[in-house]
Structure formats: C-alpha cells, structure tokens
Amino acid sequence: MTRSDLVEELAAQFGQLNQRDAEQAVKTILDAVSDALVRGHRIEIRGFGSFAINHRQPRIGRNPRSGESVQVPSKRVPHFKPGKALREAVDNLKTDDPTPSAQQTA
C-alpha cells in the first residue's frame, strides 16, 4: 500500500472527507510521527505497534567490491515493533488467499 492508496482508502471510508482533506490528514499524521522520532521520542499506537529510535554502535565494515575495511560510524535508526493485535492478525492470514503478496511468492 502506498501513501496515495492510504489517502484513497481514508477518503472512501469517511464520506465527509474529500481527497484533499484525506491527503492533509495522512500528511499530518506522518509528519507528527517523523517529528517525534527526530526529537528522540517513542510513539506507541495501541493495537498497532510502536516506533522508537535504536542506536547502532560504530563498527568495521567491508566494501563488497574491493574487500577493503571501512569504518562505519554510529547512527540512530528508526525501528518499528508491531503490537500484539497486529502480529496476531498477520499470523492468522490464510496462505491460500489471493492477495498480491501471496501471488508474488508463489
């Protein structure tokens, strides 16, 4: 699902929202999540999951082309941990459903 698919779904589900209002709602939510993560905050959406920032330590990596050792600096990366309800919903999917992801793996 892309951002535009999400906007279309939101506009279809809520008849009082036109396409522009749905786009603004999606943009506002995603901007709020991004801004909170940039400030180092943790975001928890019950039943869906939580977003947090993980710190990766500096390490020595390898350039796959030349095999040369490369110093990889420390960094902060966003991390998503699904909630229990989402994990169970995904786990209970039937593998014989004709969904795009099931078709791609077949």
Keywords:
106 residues, alpha+beta, HU Protein, Chain A, two-stranded antiparallel ribbon, 5 strands
Topology, element by element:
Blueprint: H1 3-13, H2 19-38, E1 43-45, E2 49-56, E3 59-62, E4 69-72, E5 75-82, H3 84-91, H4 100-105
Antiparallel strand pairs: 1-2, 2-5, 3-4
Helix pairs in contact: 1-2
The Cα radius of gyration reads 19 Å
Q: Low-confidence spans: pLDDT under 50, at least 5 residues?
A: none
Largest sheet: 3 strands, antiparallel
CATH topology of the largest domain: HU Protein, Chain A
Q: How would you sum up the global shape?
A: elongated
Overview of the structural elements:
The protein is α+β, with helices and mostly antiparallel strands. It has two domains: 1-41, no CATH class; 42-93, Irregular (HU Protein, Chain A), CATH 4.10.520.10. The chain is 42% helix and 25% strand. It has four helices and five strands. A three-stranded antiparallel beta sheet has the order 1-2-5. A two-stranded antiparallel sheet has the order 3-4. Strand 1 (43-45) and strand 2 form a beta hairpin. Helix 1 packs across helix 2. The longest helix is centred in the first third of the chain and has 20 residues, at 19-38. The protein is elongated, with a radius of gyration of 19 Å. The model has no long low-confidence stretch (mean pLDDT 89). This is Integration host factor subunit beta. Belongs to the bacterial histone-like protein family. It comes from Comamonas suwonensis.
What is the gist of this entry?
This protein has 106 residues and is of the alpha+beta class.
